[in-house]
Amino acid sequence: MSDIRERQLRIAAARADFLEYGPAGAAGVDDVVAASWERSHDAGVDADRYTVAFFEDIDFDSRLARCAQPVIERLARDMSDVPVTIALTDAKARIVDRRDCSTAVGRVLDRVDFQRGFCFDESGVGTNGVGTVFEVGAPVTVVGNEHFNQSLVQFACAGAPVFDPLTGRVAGVLDASMLADTWNPLVDALIRSAAADIGRNLLLDRSQATRALFETYLRADSRPRQAVMAVGSAAPQLTGSDTVIANERAREILSPADQERVVEFTRFLMSRHDSGARRVTLDDGRSIRLRSTAITYHGDAVGMVLLLDEVDDSAPGSIRLQPLRSLSTPIARSEPASSPAWQAARAEALAALESGTGVLVIGEPGSGRLSLIAEVFHEVYGDAPVVVIDAQRVECGEQVAGPESAVDDCALLVIRHLDKVSATTVDTLTLVVATATEAGYLSAVTIEPPTDEHPSAVTMPGIGQSVAIPPLRLRGSDLHTIVVRVVKALAPQRNSRISPKAMRVLAAYSWPGNIPQLREALAEALRRRPVGEIQPDDLPGYCRANTTRALTVLEAAERDAIVTALIECDGNRVRAAASLGFSRSSLYRKIHSYGISGV
User: Fold this and answer.
1) Residue 203 · residue 240 · CB < 8 Å
2) Phi/psi at 95 (nearest 5 deg)?
3) Rounded CA gap, 457 and 445, in Å?
4) In what residue span(s) does the Sigma-54 factor interaction domain sit (predicted)?
5) d(CA 349, CA 131)
6) Are 250 and 308 in contact (CB under 8 A)?
7) Mind listing the pLDDT tens digit for each residue in 430-440?
8) Pick from 162, 195, 532, 566: most CB atoms within 10 A?
9) How many Å apart are CA 288 and CA 293, to the nearest integer?
C-alpha cells in the first residue's frame, strides 16, 4: 500500500474521531487542517449535508478577472494533459472563472456545484482549497479526507491567494481541483506561481498615477526604521483612489484609529495642494512630525507619500489638537472634535486672533466657517460682540452694513460670501471693514475654495492669515458625534438614535452640502421614524449615492427610484432591474454612474 494511501486512511480515521469526539480526535492531522475543522464545526457546517450558496449579482468581468484571464489561459494550456480544473474566485470566495483541462473532472465537480457564481467560503462548506485560503491568508492544499464535508473527500485541491500588491489584501483565490486519487504535488507549485503572476498583473493594471504613488512609497520605505505611509486621492474618478499603504514602522507608532485620522488629514492637505512638513498632536498626547510629498498627474494631486516621525510634544510649532466647541445648534459647544484637519484650522485661527490679525476663512458652504471663527473669537475675547454682514444681502440692498460705534475692548466683524458679489459691493465693504478696524474691531472674511484667486480676499484691510476649513467628508472621525448631536437637536424630547447600519450609510456618503445637508437627511429620517432606531431605509435615497457631478431633476428621480427598487428587492439586482423595466446591464451601468452603494 502506498504512503499516500496510508496517509489518507489515517486522516479518514482522524476525521471520524474529530466528528465524534471533537478536537482531541484530530491528533496527527496537519495543524492548518485541524484548525479549519474546528472553525467549520464552530460555524455549524454539517459534515454530511452539502449545500453551496449561489449568488447572481457577481461581476464576472472585474479587474481581477481581466488580469487573471491571460494567466489562467496559459496555465490551462500548460496543464492540458493533467486531469484538473482551474478556478478563480473573488474576494468573497465566489467563483468568477473556471477552466476544465479534463471534461471528466469537470463533470464530477459540476455535481458539487463547483461552478461560476457559487460560494466556497469555509463557513458555508467547511475545509476546502478556496475558503480555507481566505482564513489562513496563505496557500493551502486539501487532499481527500482533509475536507470537512463528506461530499468533497473525493477531491484534492490546491489554492493560493491572489494579493493586491498595493493594499496587501487578498483579492481572490486561484484554485486547482482534481480527483484525490490522481493528486500530484507539483500542481501546488504551479498554482502558487500563477497566483503571483496575477498579483503582478493587478499592479500593472493600475493607472500610471497609482504606480507613481507606489514607486515613491517604495523609495521612501527603503530608509531604515522610517515610518512611511502612502495615501491615494479621495477623488472617486481616479483609479486607486482608495489606496492606503503603511509600512511596519508606521503601524508600530500609529494605531488603526490614528492611521485613519492621518489619512483623513492627508486628503485634506491634498485638497489644498499643501505639502511640506506639519506637526500633529494625537489624542494620546504624542506629537507626530509629518513630511509629505505630493504625487501629481496631469496637474491633479493623486496622492501623497508621508514620512512620519515621533517628536517631542513640547517642540515649537506643533499643532495642538484642541477640543472643538461649535456655536451651531446641532453641535454642542462642549463636544470635542478629533478631526486633525478641523483642529489644525482651529489652531491657526486661534493664533491669528490672539495676535490681533484678521482671518480669511476658506471652506465649502455649510462646512462651519462662521461657527469656527466665532467660537475661536469668543474663546479669546469672552462675550465680546460679533457682527455678521452677508455680502450678498448688502448687494441686494437688504442689509445695512457696518458697526455704528467704537468698542471698549474688542469685537469681531465677519463678512460672509465676499466671493459672491460684484466689485462695487466689495469696494463698499472694504470701506466698512476699514472703518470697523479703526473702531477696534477684528475682521474675518468667509469665502468658498477658489478656482481662481479672489482679488477681494487680499484687498481687505487687516486680513493677515488664511484658514482652510475641511468639508464634512474629510471629518470622518467627527461624523458620529455630529450625527448624534444633530439628532438630539432635531428631536430633543424623543428617544431617537442611529443604527450602526445607518451610520455606515452616512459615513459612505460624500455630503456635498455638508452639515446642512446632513441635518436635512436626518430630519427626513426622523419624519419616517419619529422614535426608535433610525435604519438605512429611513434615510433619503441620495445617501446611498456618490457622484462627482450635479444631477438633473430627472436623474435624481431615477437615482432615487433605483435605490428604492434595490431596497425593496433586498439588494437583488436581477429583480430590481425587472421591477424598473431595465436590462441588468443597464442597471449596473446606472448604479456605477450614480455611485450607488450599500444596497
Assistant:
1) no
2) -70, 125
3) 8
4) 466-527
5) 53
6) yes
7) 888 888 887 78
8) 162
9) 16
